[in-house]
Amino acid sequence: MSSKSHFHISPDKVRSVAVIGAGSVGASWAALFLAHGLDVVAYDPGPGAEARARQFIADAWPALVELGQAATPQPPMERLSFAATISEAAREADVVQENVLERLEVKAKVLAEIDAAASPDKIILSSTGGITPSVMQASCANPERLVVLHPFNPSHLMPLVEVVGGKQTSPEVVEWAMAFARRLGKKPIRLNAEAKGHMTNRLQFALVREAVACLTEGMASAEDIDAALRYGLAPRWLLMGSLLTLHMAGGEGGMQGILDHTGKALEEWWTPTEQVSLTPQVVSRLVEAAREVSGGQPVRDWVHWRDESLVDVLSLQKNAERGAPPQDKAAAA
Q1: Cα→Cα distances 130→35, 77, 203, 234, Å
Q2: Model pLDDT, residue 275
Q3: Which of 20, 10, 74, 73 shows the shortest CA–CA distance to 42?
Q4: Does residue 149 contact residue 177 with C-beta atoms inside 8 Å?
Q5: What integer pLDDT is reported at residue 3 of this predicted model?
Q6: pTM of the model as a whole
Q7: How far is the C-alpha of 230 from the C-alpha of 184, rounded, in Å?
Q8: Residue 228 class from Cβ within 10 Å (0-12 exposed, 13-18 middle, 19+ buried)?
Q9: Burial of 115 by CB count in 10 Å (0-12 exposed, 13-18 middle, 19+ buried)?
Q10: What per-residue confidence (pLDDT) applies to 331?
Q11: Which of 124, 193, 203, 279 has a Cα-to-Cα distance from 54 of 20 to 30 A?
Q12: Which of the residues in the chain have pLDDT under 70?
């Protein structure tokens, strides 16, 4: 962790955010920032980027209204502006949110420009899904103010964000990012160690790996593999995570009970049967599987259905959490 220290604006005093990169992730963040009363200064050099971002925000707004995130029936587009350069956006806003391509050479160049333009008191948040913050900090003269704030697609709806500090990130900046995420209605989790892909992708792709293995082994059809998750695991996982699920599987004996009873079997079940590689044959089978599970319908139609349905799912999750047994943190410790 860095020893440098700067006075940073309080998370609840932030009034504007620079969104660097206004693709699907950046535009999604912009929609959420606008919903929470923040001004957005965006930068994206891509042809038609501003028109696409404004359309994305307009399409995303009804869901934000229904979830109680947005207070106005229409998005306040007058609070969204586009800067001519990265430096201009970084200078104008209170905080900078970086969302450029997931390539280190691209991020390094962009972060260096942000770092040079933004005063040292301004925090830089990166949406990177897999690059570790310590690697990105090599591009910054003020590395202590860079922290990963990794969202999940679609960023304006999914509650989770991963907060990851690098070796030179100050502890105050990590705490700041956690508080800022909560201000935006997010459920932040703090990662205490860096890893490629961070933690939640590690969990997700362990399951993806096994789904691909089941497919290549001919264990079931693509549709049935997805059905196993949707109808067997997902409803329960909406309410609780893997560790609490395992604890409850032990009945009154809890975690100790299930491990004493089936520990050896569990080890066999969670050990991969084979290492899956993306050979041409596997790639071809996955493309065929995608056609099967999507019914051949365009991705944009599935995205529209997913985002509309997520409103109901997230509302159900929130209602269920209200009735969960109260947690005694002292007893757990």
Answers
A1: 27, 31, 13, 24
A2: 86
A3: 20
A4: yes
A5: 47
A6: 0.92
A7: 29
A8: middle
A9: buried
A10: 61
A11: 124
A12: 1-6, 329-333
Q: What is the pLDDT of residue 274?
A: 81
* Phi-psi sector, 165: left (phi>0), alpha (psi -120 to 50), beta: beta
In order of start, what are the domains of the chain with their CATH numbers?
Answer: 11-191 (3.40.50.720), 200-321 (1.10.1040.10)
Tokens of 302: 């599935």
290: number of CA atoms within 13 Å, CB side?
Answer: 9
Q: Per this entry, what is the length of the chain?
A: 333
Torsion of CA 316, 320, 321, 325, to 10 degrees: -170
- For 248, residues 6+ apart whose C-beta sits below 8 A from its C-beta are 240, 254
pLDDT of residue 1: 45
C-alpha angle 104-143-155 in degrees, rounded to nearest 5: 60
Question: CB burial class (10 A; 0-12, 13-18, 19+) of residue 150?
Answer: buried
Burial class (CB in 10 A: 0-12, 13-18, 19+), 86: buried
Contacts of 124 (CB under 8 A, 6+ apart): 95, 96, 98, 111, 114, 115, 118, 140, 145, 146, 147
Residue 115 contacts residue 93 (beta carbons within 8 Å): no
Task: Cis check for the bond before 154: say yes or no (omega within 30 of 0).
Answer: yes
Tokens at 316, concatenated: 């159900």
Angle at the Cα of 305 from the Cα atoms of 300 and 309, rounded to 5 degrees: 150
